[in-house]
Specification:
Blueprint (H helix, E strand, L loop, with lengths): L1 H7 L10 E3 L8 E6 L2 E10 L6 H18 L3 E11 L8 H16 L3 E8 L4 E10 L15 E4 L5 H9 L5 H11 L4 H9 L4 E4 L4 H13 L2 E4 L10 H6 L5 H9 L4 E3 L5 H7 L8 E5 L4 H8 L7 E7 L6 E3 L1
Parallel strand pairs: 4-5, 9-13, 10-13
Antiparallel strand pairs: 1-2, 2-3, 3-6, 4-6, 7-11, 7-12, 8-11, 9-12
Length: about 325
């Protein structure tokens, strides 16, 4: 995150009153006002395969791209595909399977794919530009968390550890299946529940890990948080794989970025610390909800999302600081 901030300092500040959300707050999507009751939300995401099955890769990439819109409380309208693929392998059917998988997810989301762009690339990459709509008064940003809010997570973590194990061909089929199911699940239901509970703030958990994205939300909101490590759900097999050493390089970078704003209780073991910082793909929503709306949120999530876990609370303190107990 420190390196990212160094790079972004060269991005020219936006001076446009219609630009409601931009890069400066590190929110999940850009939001631009169209009329007094309508704004457009736009985001982009793409990455290299993290699973071997191209159909599953397409599903995961599509769910991941749409997640940024859901985290902002926006309703997806359409997507454009972004494809990097070796031209010599076009006849192998792999790209067809990637597109078939992505189409399955966008169809479930009820939106069309209206085009895209492709390049000849020796390393396959796939993702999307996702466009959505949101009422200007209903935008959920990462800057609204308040002391007393409960912090709720809607998917278990550990996909980075599992992706590393997949690359080393040591992940079991049951572990891969569970991880794919989690990553390919849309955050649509979670977003609907979040809006119904009048959430104060939200983000989705991706490359900076649970603690990294929580830190950004707390920093933007000028508050701190306490996290109960035992309450954080983990994908099947991820703890065992972390213990066996299948930890992505990004995990240590995520931890190093938070060294000045993170306190672990002595009871929190090294594997748990790694998993809490594990870079995620298509992770769940991390939602800050007022305590009087918590029961409603949990009821709306229960049995409909991969997880519905209260993992901590927002407190007064140094902005961005996290205590893990």
């Amino acid at each position: 995150m420190a390196e990212l901030a160094q790079v972004l300092r060269h991005v020219v500040p936006v001076e446009d009153s219609n630009a409601l959300v931009g890069h400066s707050t590190r929110d999940d999507a850009a939001v631009y006002l169209l009329t007094e009751d309508k704004a457009i939300a736009v985001t982009v995401d793409f990455f290299t395969p993290i699973v071997d099955d191209p159909y599953d890769f397409g599903r995961i990439a599509a769910a991941n791209a749409l997640s940024d819109l859901y985290a902002m409380g926006a309703r997806p309208l359409l997507v454009l595909n972004l494809v990097g693929f070796p031209r010599a392998l076009l006849s192998e059917g792999v790209l067809e399977e990637i597109l078939r998988g992505s189409n399955q997810v966008t169809h479930k989301a009820g939106i069309p794919t209206l085009g895209g762009h492709s390049i000849d690339d020796p390393e396959p990459k796939f993702g999307m530009v996702a466009v959505g709509e949101v009422h200007p008064d209903r935008i959920i940003t990462n800057a609204g968390a308040r002391p007393g809010d409960a912090i709720v997570l809607t998917k278990p973590i550990g996909s980075g550890v599992i992706a590393t194990a997949i690359k080393d061909e040591v992940a079991g089929e049951d572990v891969i299946l569970d991880a794919v199911n989690v990553m390919s699940t849309l955050n649509q239901t979670a977003a609907d529940a979040m809006l119904g509970a009048d959430a104060h703030a939200a983000t989705d958990v991706t490359g900076f890990g649970l603690l990294g994205h929580l830190h950004q939300m707390l920093l933007a909101s000028s508050v701190a948080a306490r996290v109960q490590a035992d309450s954080v759900p983990m994908i099947t097999g991820s703890r065992e794989l972390a213990n066996a050493g299948y930890i992505p390089g990004g995990t240590q970078r995520n931890l190093e970025d938070l060294v000045d704003t993170l306190d672990f209780d002595a009871t929190v073991d090294a594997d748990t610390r790694a998993l809490l910082s594990d870079p995620q793909t298509s992770g769940g929503l991390l939602i800050c909800v007022p305590p009087d709306r918590l029961d409603q949120l949990l009821a709306d999530l229960e049995g409909k999302t991969p997880a519905a876990a209260v993992v901590g609370s927002v407190v007064n303190g140094n902005p961005g600081h996290i205590t893990v107990e």
